[in-house]
Amino acid sequence: MLVGAALQPVYAADEFGGIVTAMEGWGIDQLWLTDSSMHAKCCYSFATLAALHSRTMTIGTAVTNPITRHPGVSAVAALTQHEISRGRFRYGIGAGDRPLLALGYKPARLAVLEDAITATRRLWAGEEVTWEANGFSLDKAHVRYGAPAQIPLYVSASGPKTLEMAGRVADGVILLAGLHPEGLQYAISHIERGAEKAGRDARPSITVFGYGAIDDDEEIALAAGRTIAAWFPQTAPEYCRLAGLPEDIAQRVKSAYGGGEFQEAADAARLLPDDFVRRMSLCGDKSVVRDHLKTMAELGIDCFAAFPTTDSVESRLRTVQVLAEVAAEIKAE
Predict the structure, then answer these.
(1) Each residue of 172-218: pLDDT tens digit?
(2) Which pTM value belongs to this model?
(3) Range(s) of the domain holding residue 57
(4) What UniProt keywords are attached to this protein's entry (predicted)?
(5) What is the pLDDT of residue 247?
(6) Are residues 302 and 199 in the same domain?
(7) Is the alpha carbon torsion for 290, 222, 245, 32 positive or negative?
């Protein structure tokens, strides 16, 4: 199984290349960069830096959306990254999340997302596209510069309808489902259902994101994982039920979640039991990481990516490094 890192592009640009080189040296296979509108720096600029400072790791958006980025514009951006990275770019797209609210938008409907995927692939193939699609239009649109390419396309998904759509059409799925087996099995079953309905021979590749921190100090680790755990009652409540969170607590957390990025959910997060936080996030020491990796290997998951949520650069990178170390130890056994 592969291991990855998902980062918000908030680092100093002149330091980020060194961070990427270090991560590749640790054994990180996938690097994902968030496209968080005004909540971070430009993911495509940082993807360029990452491509120029690495040789083997894949680099992707996690994730862009068809609301703030027209599919035609995103198609060109992805083809450019494909060229710069010499084929290592992965195009991650989703409906969009709470950062859209600051721009006055709501997440995309499923039909808009699927049409955006279709349009993007047609443009990548070199077609001239005229289409009144759901949520956007194209009029004799075609890519003028850059060779046609088939770039691996990943869909970010949690809910059953998006998971099934991803199973039908995506090359990969970025899975936000917590880290406990019941939630992961639930999500995988919907992905496989979509793949089966489409007559595909196999389901798409699956990368699971684990938000939080790896730390010997459990309080630090729990604090890092608590805010993403508060995201689930608001955005993907089915995983709360599967993880055993009482309905009254889920409703209180949902009411207290003020919006914005998951890091802004501190008040809501304090309402959550520690056991629920452990089930939904990456929080603990090396032994916890080892358990997660073994569970995911048993479920046939292709990659586990750490999304560190601590404040300091050093602690975030330490989480990524420890994940790579534990994966290497397991592989050597």
Answers:
(1) 999 999 999 999 999 999 999 999 999 999 999 999 999 999 999 99
(2) 0.96
(3) 2-217+282-332
(4) Oxidoreductase
(5) 96
(6) yes
(7) negative
What are the φ and ψ backbone dihedral angles of 62, each rounded to 5 degrees? Answer: -140, 80
Q: Are strands 205-214 and 129-133 parallel, antiparallel or unpaired?
A: unpaired
- Tokens standing for 196? 């089966």
Distance in angstroms (rounded) separating the CA atoms of residues 108 and 105: 9
d(CA 272, CA 254): 11
Same domain? For 129 and 277 the reply is no
243 and 96 together in one domain:
no
Distance (Å, whole) CA 134 – CA 116: 8
Measured between alpha carbons, how far is 132 from 137 in angstroms, rounded to an integer?
Answer: 5
CB of 212 closer than 8 Å to CB of 283? yes
Helix (H, G, I), strand (E, B) or coil at 144: coil
The residue among 245, 213, 215 whose CA lies nearest residue 230 is 245
Residues 233 and 304 in one domain: no
Q: Which three-class secondary structure state does DSSP give residue 42?
A: coil
Q: Specify the CATH number for the domain of residue 110.
A: 3.20.20.30
Q: Is the dihedral of CA 178, 182, 187, 192 positive or negative?
A: positive
* Angstrom distance (rounded) from CA 177 to CA 183: 6
> Could you read off the pLDDT of 273-300 as tens digits, one per residue?
999 999 999 999 999 999 999 999 999 9
